[in-house]
Design goal:
The strands form 6 sheets. Strands 2-3-1-10 form a 4-stranded mixed sheet. It has a 4-stranded parallel sheet with strand order 8-7-4-16. The radius of gyration is 25 Å and the shape is globular. With 469 residues, the chain is of the alpha/beta class. The chain contains 18 helices and 18 strands. The chain has one domain: Alpha-Beta Barrel (TIM Barrel). Helix content is 48%, strand content 13%. The chain has helices at residues 13-30, 37-45, 61-70, 107-118, 140-151, 165-179, 183-186, 201-212, 233-255, 281-297, 315-332, 350-367, 374-377, 379-385, 395-404, 416-421, 427-440, 450-467; strands spanning 32-34, 49-51, 56-58, 82-89, 93-95, 102-103, 126-128, 154-155, 190-193, 198-199, 218-221, 223-225, 261-264, 266-268, 300-303, 334-338, 341-342, 347-348.
Length: 469
């Protein structure tokens, strides 16, 4: 018995078919702009209708249907619910737990944040996109790798400039040799479709450059209702599905992969302020609709969720994270959180990271498999206790309560009277104390050998001489 990953139908069968036919028309009539002749030729070989002058690949209905028929499907009935997270670091401020101020990053705070993430049981560590330390903008992707490897985080995979490709390749050659792996095993890079259905010249060049060397750069996307996609949920979900299927066919044409997976990162444009907020009900609804369509196609689904627009840890932050996290987990059977993030990725908060870890702990318990058996029923114990009986002194209780009941670390475990008589700490107070304790006792030591550190910095210095004016 489990709570997450079951069928959750918002859409009728007729609505599913309406969306599907819309997806087919977008793929066949609009297609995807790919500003690279080499990649377009590969798309043509895969069966796409390619216009080199317009730099457009269109996907005939027969191609899409054949791909869907042959692709590796997800067995939704056999999937086990999954909950996890990591601490993402993006452009923005560091929330200093001691001063409670939003400040600029320095090397010590970055190393501390990575270490704090590694100590949270339900996080797989930290990741960083670009460099949060003061470096030349042209060199950010190189420093991203350097600082992530130095302090034990996962690089986000930025590339930015075409001219950086050879230097990134050199870094990964060193990394592979240091770890005794192949470069394919350690390589990580991503580019993004910024406007919908358009792989720009630089992003396409970077994908092609690494592909020639046997490496795969991922392609991500995000849609904004009313900005880069239709203002309606139905329109944006349809466009996202078309774009996701186009990217899966792209993966097949370039790398031979036929895995059918669908992602979703869809939220609104706030028409008053023009920001792209995360803590809105539309994000949850888009995830629910797309998870249902993923089942329609036999695809796996992973939706963007568990994020907030609040500037500091607060009730707003908690509600917004739960608003998108719980429905996404229930419908898709999986949930991944970028822990610690606030203000639409502009704030990285150690306090919020600890609070998010507690939330992930609760969600992990919520979605795990619960046993329904003669033993778990405890029928003999019920018969023994009889009417009005107590179960506190029963062997069945002592044997099973630690496994059956979730044990919080921060959330309240006392009634009002003892809380009033004690320190009167809230969850945010306890999280802040934990964050401060590690900050005050944080050893910023490098995880790189002196020789490897020097080799990495030499490559970065070569790039500086060539690229930084």
């Amino acid at each position: 018995m489990r709570a997450a990953g079951h069928v959750y139908n918002l859409l009728s069968s007729a609505e599913e078919n309406t969306i599907h036919h819309g997806v087919l028309r977008i793929l066949a009539e609009v297609g995807m702009e790919i500003q690279n002749d080499e990649l377009l030729r590969l798309m043509a070989e895969a069966g796409a209708s390619v216009d080199l002058d317009a730099q457009r690949a269109r996907f005939p209905v027969s191609l899409v249907e054949n791909f869907l028929a042959e692709a590796e499907k997800q067995d939704w009935e056999a999937c086990q619910p999954r909950v996890g997270g990591s601490a993402g670091v993006y452009h923005g401020k560091f929330h200093d737990p001691e001063s409670n101020e939003l400040v600029e990053w320095d090397e010590r705070s970055l190393a501390y944040y990575f270490k704090l993430a590694s100590r949270q049981k339900f996080l797989s560590g930290a990741s960083m996109l670009g460099s949060r330390l003061a470096v030349s903008g042209e060199l950010e992707p190189l420093y991203e790798r350097y600082y992530c490897w130095k302090y034990g985080a996962q690089e986000g995979g930025s590339v930015y400039l075409d001219e950086l490709c050879p230097y990134l390749y050199e870094l990964y050659e060193l990394r592979a040799a240091q770890q005794g792996k192949t470069i394919q095993d350690v390589f990580h890079a991503s580019v993004y479709l910024i406007p919908a259905l358009k792989l720009g010249r630089h992003e396409a060049y970077q994908v092609a450059w690494f592909r020639k060397r046997g490496l795969r750069a991922g392609v991500g996307d995000m849609l904004a209702l009313g900005g880069t996609s239709p203002v309606t949920l139905a329109g944006t979900v349809t466009l996202n599905l078309a774009e996701q299927l186009a990217l899966r066919i792209f993966d097949w044409a370039l790398f031979g992969e036929k895995k059918l997976s669908i992602g979703g990162s869809m939220s609104v444009i706030d028409m008053r302020t023009m920001i792209y907020p995360y803590g809105r009900p539309e994000m949850a609804l888009a995830n629910l609709m797309t998870a249902q369509m993923a089942r329609f196609y036999g695809a796996s689904y992973s939706g963007h969720a568990g994020l907030s627009d609040a500037k500091l840890p607060s009730v707003e932050a908690g509600y917004q994270k739960a608003l998108t996290a719980i429905p996404t987990l229930l419908a898709s059977g999986s949930f991944w959180m970028d822990a610690g993030l606030l203000s639409t990725d502009e704030v990285c908060s150690p306090v919020q990271m600890i609070l998010d870890n507690e939330f992930l702990s609760a969600l992990s318990h919520f979605c795990r498999e619960f046993e329904v058996s003669e033993e778990s029923l405890g029928l003999e114990t019920i018969l023994e206790a009889g009417p009005g009986g107590s179960y506190m002194d029963k062997e069945h209780t002592a044997r099973r309560f630690r496994h059956e009941h979730w044990q919080p670390k921060i959330w309240s475990r006392e009634m009002l009277a003892p809380w009033l008589a004690g320190a009167r700490k809230l969850d945010v107070d306890q999280a802040r104390e934990q964050a401060i304790q590690l900050m005050r006792h944080n050893d910023i030591g490098s995880g790189l050998s002196a020789a490897f550190d020097m080799d990495l910095l030499k490559i970065i210095d070569d790039a500086r001489k060539k690229l930084v004016i």
